[in-house]
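Worked Example 4.2. Consider the chain below.
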Amino acid sequence: METLISYFESIPSSHRALILAGGIALFWLIESAVPFVKFKYNKWQHAGINIFFTLTTIVVNFCLAFILIRTAQWTVDHQFGLLHWLPEMSSWLFAVTGLLLLDFIGAYLAHLVEHKVRFLWRFHLIHHTDTWIDTTSGNRHHPGESVIRFVFTTIGVLLVGCPMWLVFLYQTLSVVATQFTHANIALPKKADKIISYVLVSPDMHKVHHHYVLPFTDSNYGNIFSVWDRLFGTFRTLDREQIVYGVDTHMKPEEHNKLANLLAIPFQKCRSPQSEE
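Applying the procedure from the previous section yields the following structure tokens:
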């Protein structure tokens, strides 16, 4: 465990970039070879849009990184946050507890609030407009949402009391998990179900991308599925019934044009429909 901590305390930016690019490349190859859905789309054009949003997310996080670093260091220096107030524990238990709590505040809670607050939903909506979910879709976030997510992550680091090595570890796991759950692949149903008891599985996240309510407003988890199960936001839907996208923006000129995607948060908000 000490080796792991030492590595993530000073993980080079090049390694983080390699994990991001390597994950996309790996799942891109797998989904190209054995796709779950044989989409009729221009895969490169679709990837171009999503990679643009990936790059804007990287830029936003890079520009604001000093805030996150100083916040993490402040919690350590002042012994502030849940991890510092709990009884002393082993390094492994410390890491798992920290990952769970950071996943709750910085990811699950942030995601839920984005769905419930209309102003925030305007920005998160861009992620849901994608009707061709593949591994590049995981990073399809409007620059405005990247800022919103960063704020929640920083709040999570502050409240949990995460040292920076734990933040880097969480972000690394989050990147890989996001690419995995969005990839256009399908595990054996039994295996997927078993995984979903602890971690967010591909089928579990596919439900979140179904185009109508109440499924859109479910399965908010990022890495761990425990929070959805605990707070009653877990839903299932047979993978063959899932239709990707969001019912308010199903036209290609709305969900597959970069200029329109950037403008959506500033357009008139549309009311979604429901299957129930």
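Residues 106 and 156 are 5 Å apart (CA to CA). The mean pLDDT is 94. Compare this with Example 4.1 before moving on.
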